[in-house]
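Internal ticket #5521
Category: modeling
Description: The requester needs a full-assembly model to guide mutagenesis choices. All entity lines are attached below as received. Residue total reported by intake: 465.
Assigned to: D.W.
Attached entities:
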Amino acid sequence: MELMLYDTYERALRPFVALQSGAAGLYACGPTVYDYAHIGNLRTYLFGDVLRRVLALNGHAVRHVICITDVGHLTSDADTGEDKMEKGSRRTSQSAWDIAAFYTAAFQQDIAALNILAPAVWARASEHIQEQIDFIAGIERNGYTYRTGDGIYFDTQKLARYGHLARLDIDGLRSGHRVGLGDKRAATDFALWKFSGGPQRQMEWDSPWGRGFPGWHIECSAMSTRYLGALFDIHIGGEDHIPVHHSNEIAQHEACHHHPPARYWLHGAFLQVDGGDKMSKSSGEFLRLATLTARGFDPLAYRYLALSAHYRSPLTFSWAALDAAQTALNRLRLAYHRLPDGGQPDAGYQRAMQAELNQDLNTPRALALMWELLKSEVAGGAQRATLDWLDQVFGLGLAAWAPQVLAAPPAVLALVAARDQARHQRRWADADTLRRAIEDAGYAVRDTPAGARVERQAASMISNE
Ligand code: AMP
Ligand code: ZN
């Protein structure tokens, strides 16, 4: 059965053919570790995880590399503004190195909580400075660079196919951006190496061009080449990377190696918040995985929610949608654990499910088939074995789950105690305000002869009934 993937470069569904039969190199642009990841970022890694698992289901040993951007990503994509790491350092009064280590660890915890398989390599930009310098030297040797007062730039006008990935209107872009160009020759040109300049930076290195730091895009060219070779199978990221970051990675690679780095380019659509705004680190509502768990949700309920939408469709986050996902996941877990052990997967369902997954990772259709299976006449043992097989891709940890009652988080318990005291002292208005705060956090408080009891409001309380 053929695996079809939507390749952004060709704007078409293409059968996946690995460069090396049975193996697949997969490179994912990772987080900029100046802050926590939000659940929008995490949606993109969930998409990468499903892709990796579907590749494995199709018999490919996957070599997955995720980069960690811990230097050189400026606050503006136009190579101006401050380094996000140095800015994060000022915000937290910690060194740029310390916050990189802290937010990398926080990110890896979120990844593990979502059952996202750890990559073969976590590639940190700051640990691959020499590879980046060598890559820039290769681009320079082939004549695609020029020097300005603040750095070494890529001359995009020398590359006829620049911007093909994004179908960029190059002439329009270049003529519309005469202002604010600085020393750059064209608006689409970008920095490969920036000179330190100004106040001393925490992260800077010597290079053949002077002391400074790498531009943001070069890290992925250098590290993907180091770990996957100059030509590898699949490059992925969020859809925002199409017009700038990935277009520039391709340009760098073509200038150095005369071909693009990867044979397939896949992009995940954004998670939006109610009202259609994208979720971003700098604007809008910033929801972390910890925000969801503080409200009593299971991280895997978010994984379920992500599986319920196709990766190329925008997904709008709402608490109601997450609650529905939690309820569905609880139902699925209970249904699974009621089924007897010892069957063989049902070949018909297996084929149908894999056909959906192989059709550009159609997880919503595979989920629908899963519920259909649970209502079907297929024997219980075969249902369970089919779910075990499918969970290799869904990663919902069905077999490992054990029934439990989720306790209310400490913040909610503190509100309950404060309300008890207010009632005791007959401060009824205060008690009402506190009750509303408890309800806003997603819990209901019930007064019983034994004292106040708190429980999760919606149907997502896990029970063993
Ligand atoms: P960053 O940490 O900003 O470099 O982003 C890390 C990854 O998250 C990139 O692949 C982005 O494309 C992706 N990303 C950023 N915002 C969102 C969002 N709202 N929904 C889905 N993916 C996102
Ligand atoms: Zn990248």
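Resolution: model delivered.
Comment from assignee: The CA atoms of residues 33 and 103 lie 5 Å apart.
Ticket closed.
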